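Run folding on both entries below.
>entry_1
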Amino acid sequence: MTVEQDGDLGAYPLQRQLFSNVRLYIQHWMWRRELGYILHPRISVDQGTKIVDIACGNCAWLIDAAREYPQAQFDGFDISPAQFPHSGWLPKNIKLSTMDIFKPIPEELRGNYDVVHVGLLVFVVDKDDPVPILDNLLALLKPGGYLQWDEADYAGSHVKIPESSVPYAALQELKDNLQNLLKATKQSNFEWVRKLGPMFQRRGLDVLDDTFRSIPDDIAQPWTLQHMLAAAEVINVIHQKTGKGTEWWNLYDRAVAEVEQGASVRMGMVSVVGQKPE
């Protein structure tokens, strides 16, 4: 299969529908399990602390954070409200609105937050340059505030099998083809993820932690399942934009058969925490 002919996937190569939400919940719970925290232990949260989650999606992180820190006030922003839960289901200390993080931060939000959280923008950043987003995140922070950026090391994604008899050729091909297509779409090799810590430092932040965690074997299956859900979303986008989904779906079905026999896809977790100078 040649992927060069399948075109530009646009600004956001995933979807915002029912199964997308399922994937985001699975993803959130695995991240929380492996990191061991919602907010890094060095981040202070007191009565009235103002916390914002950027690109909040279906608010899985926000809802858990609001439960863990009921004394804080949470705002969530996303470019689209399509995955927001109904307001009646949200904790009282959460407010939601829309924001394009690539555009200038509104004056009333500048320097407004004690903590900024952001995560999983790897398919949003173009040309290996997250600095425009980083600068806007810093604009939201009060002096002395904290920034926590949790990101997937997509450049390091790889296929792993539990024993040599497990087939994986189709899963490897699917992973490689999707990765090459996304590299072309975003004009990125995604290596910026492992460089977030130094980027924080160059923007004057005191880096409190720069963590990388590999995906352990005991969550190989759910991690791979959420990856396959994401792959299906990308293939749907390819089909909608080009009408060339048939060959992709044939490869996908072969890869699913290998996943059912134990083949897995892994990519590490990066979490960087910085503090803005007073």
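>entry_2
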Amino acid sequence: MRLVRAAPASGCSTSQLCKSASTALTRSSHSLRRLHSASLPTHSQQHPRTSLATSAMSTSTAPAATSLEPVFVRKQFGGVNRRFKFTSSTLGCPTTFTVYFPPAAEAGKAVPVLFFLSGLECSDTNFIEKAGAQRRASELGLAIVTMDTSPRGMGVAGESDSWDFGVGAGFYVNATQGKWKNWQMFDFVTKQFSGASRFLCEARGNSLVGMFPLAVAPPCIMVDTGSADPFLASQLRPEALEAAAKERDFPIQSRLLEGYDHSYYFISTFIDEHLTFHAKALGL
């Protein structure tokens, strides 16, 4: 498991970022009332503001309300998990994302957002269903946004031949070969979900693709790795990251946790610590 804190926008304080996010929420709330109504009609009449689903996107790149299709609504710890489907202009195909709205957001308040970037073979629901993050997120007043890990259904030859390349394995980078032209995952996160670089202060991830936030120059990194992780020596190699951070005088918190592996059993064990870490960085 690799958990990484991403950087605030240059020259902006946390309060300024939250104000920017709040502005985005206000601008987008009107257009999303129909979506919220379709998702949870009775509740939407009281709190018609679901805009956290698109506070993770700029108002110019967020999908129009009519293109966002509600997939499911599940209440949890006083908040609500909402999954949406839309056609991504970046990926050129339908895709999904899920948002956990904590109770404060359900009450109409603007709250900070944490992006979670899932690992290989995952979708936007793995973390939401397995990590057990909602309890602590509800206490902290922290929204969580998860997204799919690649385009799907493109019919590209070989796209599903390997578990670590193609479908479910976009690595959050932009493909450079024409065959894989739809695999524009870096742009998908930073442009389609532009709050990852514009409005929101925090991002995190697990597995190999959890390294993505390093591309946006985080001011601090928190890394947990299990000593029983089968990928520890061959791919994860946390000591290499620690050495690189030390060489550049870059702040890092890294732990090797005895007996833990690469699974959500591991993630769910330490998720509260990591959410608290991010919440402190956000000033909660």
